[in-house]
User: Which sequence fits this backbone?
C-alpha cells in the first residue's frame, strides 16, 4: 500500500473519531436540555411567570434537535442545546422570584390585617380584656405539666410539609399576642413536633421551622423576641401512635409553653 494511502486512511480515521466524540457530547447535551425543558413546560407556575423564556427554550431545543441529524453539526447542536438549557434555567429562576414576591406580598397583607385587628381589640378595657383573654387561654390550653401551661396548635394550621401558618391560625395567635401584652413578665417556649414520616433531619428542620413561623408572627405583632424561645423536636415525644393517620395528625403539632406570672419557665425537654 502506498504511504499516501496509509496517511489518508489515518486522517479519515482521526476525523471519524473526532466526529464520534463530538456526536456523543452533543447527544448528551441535547438529552439534558430536553429533560430541563420538559420540567419547566410541565410546571404551571413557570408557565405563568415566564412564558417567553419557556418558548425560547423550546425553540432552541427544536433547532438543536433538527441540527443533530446533520453530519458535522455537533458544535451547533451543543450551542443551541446550551441556549435551551439556559432559557429553562432563567424561566425557573424568574418563576421562583415571582413566587417569592407574591408570598411576601401575601404575608405583608396578612400582617397589616392582624395589626389592624390588634388595634381594634384594644378598644376593650384592659381589665375586661385581660380577664377574658386569660379565660380564653386557659380554655385553649390542654394540660398543666412540669414544663408549664401548654397550648397545642394542631397540624390543621399548616399545610402538609410546609412551615407557613394558615390564615385559620390567626385567631389563636392574636389571642396569644394580646395575652402576652397584658402580661409583660410572662415568656413562652414554642416547641415544634412532627410525625415519624420522613427522615430524622428533615423532621427536625420542619418542626423547628414551624415553631419559628409562630414565633415570627408574635415578634411581628410586637412581642419582644427575648420573651420567646424556639425548639424543634422532630418526631420525638409523640402524643399518639404513628401507625394511623389520626395518630400522625395528633403528633404533627406546635406546643406553646407559658411561664408563670414571674416569667419562670419549666425545664425544656
Assistant:
Amino acid at each position: 500500500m502506498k504511504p499516501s494511502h496509509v496517511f489518508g486512511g489515518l486522517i479519515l480515521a482521526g476525523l471519524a473519531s473526532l466526529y464520534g466524540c463530538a456526536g456523543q457530547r452533543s447527544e448528551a447535551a441535547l438529552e439534558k436540555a430536553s429533560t430541563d425543558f420538559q420540567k419547566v413546560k410541565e410546571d404551571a407556575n413557570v408557565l405563568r411567570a415566564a412564558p417567553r423564556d419557556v418558548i425560547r427554550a423550546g425553540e432552541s431545543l427544536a433547532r438543536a434537535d433538527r441540527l443533530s441529524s446533520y453530519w458535522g453539526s455537533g458544535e451547533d447542536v451543543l450551542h443551541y442545546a446550551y441556549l435551551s438549557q439556559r432559557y429553562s434555567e432563567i424561566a425557573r429562576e424568574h418563576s421562583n422570584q415571582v413566587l417569592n414576591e407574591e408570598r411576601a406580598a401575601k404575608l405583608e397583607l396578612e400582617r397589616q390585617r392582624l395589626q389592624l385587628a390588634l388595634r381594634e381589640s384594644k378598644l376593650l378595657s384592659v381589665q375586661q380584656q385581660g380577664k377574658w383573654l386569660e379565660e380564653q387561654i386557659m380554655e385553649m390550653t390542654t394540660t398543666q405539666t412540669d414544663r408549664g401551661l401548654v397550648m397545642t396548635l394542631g397540624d390543621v394550621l399548616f399545610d402538609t410539609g410546609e412551615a407557613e401558618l394558615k390564615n385559620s391560625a390567626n385567631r389563636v395567635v392574636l389571642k396569644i399576642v394580646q395575652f402576652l401584652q397584658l402580661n409583660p413578665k410572662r415568656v413562652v417556649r414554642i416547641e415544634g413536633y412532627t410525625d415519624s414520616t420522613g427522615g430524622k433531619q428533615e423532621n427536625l428542620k420542619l418542626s423547628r421551622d414551624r415553631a419559628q413561623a409562630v414565633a415570627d408572627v408574635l415578634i411581628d405583632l410586637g412581642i419582644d423576641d427575648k420573651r420567646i424561645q424556639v425548639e424543634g423536636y422532630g418526631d420525638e415525644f409523640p402524643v399518639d401512635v404513628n401507625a394511623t393517620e389520626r395518630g400522625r395528625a395528633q403528633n404533627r403539632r406546635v406546643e406553646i409553653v407559658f411561664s408563670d406570672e414571674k416569667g419562670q419557665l419549666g425545664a425544656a425537654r
